[in-house]
Recover the amino acids of this structure.
């Protein structure tokens, strides 16, 4: 599967400040960058740094006045769908070192607050069977509602409100998975068919020796996701972090299939 990606971010930044961008698709074993260009209209040169876990890259820019980002790419995704339910669990003591941090609570994923719920509602399940059941539960019990959450909404708040957007679905699934002993991280990604069109947030769970993409919104399938970044929660995967104040003029994301 090849995806054509076209992104425009147009902002006004009144006072000079630093801006951290995270919009470029990552080059990985299961996704290749056939072509990409990034143009940032700003007064000073850009500086690229490695993304979390060495996946993708962040770009530092200096914002002042009109600030515009244009990103285009063609990404080839070579990834098969995997049936979660048949994947075996990995005991925490046997986990690779780099996955352990994703067992622990984080700012937006208070996994320690969900341990009792997991024990009551999903007793006897582990590994892929638990992961599949959790994804089904989140999909069935949340309503997708634009504007239902904000930048301070956590997994626990989403659990109580039972509504949200893709980031909220990802946060809740990640928190529940961690509470059930499955390392889980948040992923920002591009995918066709997302409505409204935007950068998409999904979860990635460590099962049977590998990270497995899971979208509880059911808007995207793993075989058509192009990862941008991974992290503990939305703090690590935000597409733009402004160390100051900015006003959005336009934000546009287009992802279309080139094959099939």
């Amino acid at each position: 599967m090849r995806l054509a990606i076209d992104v425009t971010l147009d902002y006004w930044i009144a006072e000079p400040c630093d801006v951290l961008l995270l919009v470029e698709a990552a080059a990985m074993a299961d996704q290749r960058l056939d072509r990409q260009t990034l143009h940032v209209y700003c007064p000073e040169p850009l500086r690229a740094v490695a993304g979390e876990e060495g996946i993708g890259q962040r770009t530092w820019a200096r914002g002042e006045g009109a600030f515009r980002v244009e990103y285009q790419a063609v990404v080839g995704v070579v990834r098969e769908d995997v049936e979660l339910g048949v994947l075996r669990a990995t005991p925490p003591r046997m986990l690779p070192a780099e996955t352990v941090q994703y067992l622990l609570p984080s700012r937006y994923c208070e996994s320690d607050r969900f341990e009792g719920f997991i024990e009551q509602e999903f007793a006897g399940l582990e590994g892929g069977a638990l992961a599949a059941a959790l994804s089904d539960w989140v999909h069935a019990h949340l309503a997708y509602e634009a504007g239902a959450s904000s930048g301070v909404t956590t997994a626990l708040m989403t659990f109580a409100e039972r509504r949200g957007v893709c980031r909220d679905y990802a946060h809740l699934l990640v928190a529940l998975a961690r509470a059930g002993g499955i390392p889980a991280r948040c992923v920002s990604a591009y995918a066709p068919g997302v409505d409204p069109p935007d950068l998409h947030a999904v979860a990635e769970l460590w099962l049977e020796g590998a990270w497995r993409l899971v979208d509880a919104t059911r808007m995207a399938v793993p075989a058509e996701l192009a990862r941008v970044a991974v992290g503990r929660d939305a703090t690590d995967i935000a597409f733009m972090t402004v160390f100051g104040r900015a006003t959005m003029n336009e934000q546009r994301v287009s992802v279309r299939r080139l094959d099939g």
Notes: The longest strand covers residues 57-77.
